[in-house]
Amino acid sequence: MNTEVKQTIWIKPLTDWYKVNTDARQNTINENTTCGRVIRDHNRKWIVGFYKYIGICSILEAKLWAVYTGMMTAWDQGVQQLEVETDGNQVEDSLAKKASSGELDVRIIHEPPQSVIKMLQDDCEGYPQ
């Protein structure tokens, strides 16, 4: 059995473009799903992060919700040139864990939480400025 863990490196979008990274999680016991997303610019600057409790659905449906809400949030922030990437990394996974059951609203985060700052740096490690 191969137990190798693949680390995802964040690759910046083109100049003047933004990237939304999304991830979804499903609780294996109760099948509740959540998603987390981060929008960054081509300089890696955090624009906005957000997470959402979705409820009981398939992981594919949760990923589609993540993409949809990511695109809607980007539009609300005035972002129109957007690259979408699913199956995010540690940052999006961490945000997805923050969503709690029963809260159906999207929770917007304008500053990166302390818990993800190192992860943001690690995402870009080894990638040229």
Automatic annotation (TrEMBL):
Gene3D superfamilies: Ribonuclease H-like superfamily/Ribonuclease H
Secretion signal, residue range per the UniProt entry: none
InterPro entries: RNase_H-like, RNase_H-like_dom_plant, RNaseH-like_sf, RNaseH_domain, RNaseH_sf
Taxonomic superkingdom: Eukaryota
Residue ranges of domain RNase H type-1 in the record: 21-100
Any coiled-coil regions, as ranges: none
Spans through the membrane: none
Recorded GO MF terms: nucleic acid binding; RNA-DNA hybrid ribonuclease activity
Descriptive protein name: RNase H type-1 domain-containing protein
